Amino acid sequence: MKRGAPEHPAWAGAAGGALAGGLGAALYALHCTDDSPLFVLTWYGLAIGFMTVAGALIGRRTLSW
């Protein structure tokens, strides 16, 4: 089972968080009427960044064996 664990759990968690943040932003963008570039860059970027950091912190603890 050790071969199934990621070698860098924080990086794996960050990748999962970025994927989750990106998918969430894409789904939200389908329903949001405000699509100005400044709004998208600021709020979507912050949300994806937050999810990436959260994924890294959670992944560091939960993905290590």
**Uncertain segments of ≥5 residues (pLDDT<50)?**
none
Query: What's the mean pLDDT score?
Result: 90
User: Structurally, how many domains make up the residues?
Assistant: 1
Could you give the distance between the termini? 9 Å
- Outline the biggest β-sheet: none
Helical residue percent? over 70%
Strand portion: under 5%
Helical segment count: 2
Q: Over the alpha carbons, how many angstroms does the gyration radius reach?
A: 14 Å
Structural class: mainly alpha
Essential attributes:
65 residues, mainly alpha, elongated
Fold and architecture overview:
With 65 residues, this protein is an all-alpha fold. It has one domain. Helices cover 75% and strands 0% of the residues. The protein contains 2 helices and no strands. Helix 1 runs antiparallel to helix 2. The longest helix has 26 residues. The chain is elongated and about 45 Å long. The mean pLDDT is 90. InterPro entries: NrsF (IPR009495). It comes from Ancylobacter oerskovii. Keywords: Membrane, Transmembrane, Transmembrane helix.
